Amino acid sequence: MPVLEIKKAGDPVLREKCQPIDTFDRKLRLLLNNMADTMYKADGVGLAAPQIGLSIAVVVIDVGEGIIEMINPKIIEREGTIEDTEGCLSVPGVYGTVERSARVVAEYQNRYGKKRTIEGTDLLARAIQHELDHLEGVLFTDKVTSFVKPEEE
Ligand code: CO
After folding, report:
1. Model confidence over 112-146: pLDDT tens digits?
2. Where do the DSSP E strands lie in 23-143?
């Protein structure tokens, strides 16, 4: 499977608001496969379509519990707040503290267009929020309260 080039901060595609998907075809499924391969190869826990140069509402996430493919995702419930360190494959070598909701529920469509709901806490909640931000053109560095110094990594 092809591994795709990951766009880095400064690329305007990372700042665009993504378009929804309305066609659930073979091309989309191939894209999802390639995004997963790209994420695993880069050792990431999530990847959003803008990060491979496509301004469409598609993300893949794997926090160690298997692949989650989310199309047209939307957070419908949030609870609590929690701070933790984040990084991003599009902002290599940079880490910082970001406050996120502690628990989220998101609605999305799977690769066949079927409606699904997911509840996430801990790293999954953080990954969902981080990846969905990408679909709005938001990077984690926009929300960092303090950057982690390299010697503390
Ligand atoms: Co990211």
Report:
1. 999 999 999 999 999 999 999 999 999 999 999 99
2. 46-48, 58-61, 68-86, 96-109, 115-121
Please give the domain boundaries of the chain with CATH numbers for all domains.
12-148 (3.90.45.10)
Residue type, 119: E
The rounded Å distance from CA 25 to ligand 1 centre is: 26
Q: Which among 131, 151, 152, 153 is annotated as catalytic?
A: 131
Confirm if 40 and 70 have CB atoms less than 8 A apart: no
The pTM score is 0.96
Q: For residues 69 and 59, what is the distance between their CA atoms, to the nearest angstrom?
A: 6
Reference 44, options 88, 99, 91; nearest CA is 88
Per the annotation, the verdict on 131 as an active-site residue is yes
Nearest to 139 by CA among 10, 3, 34: 10
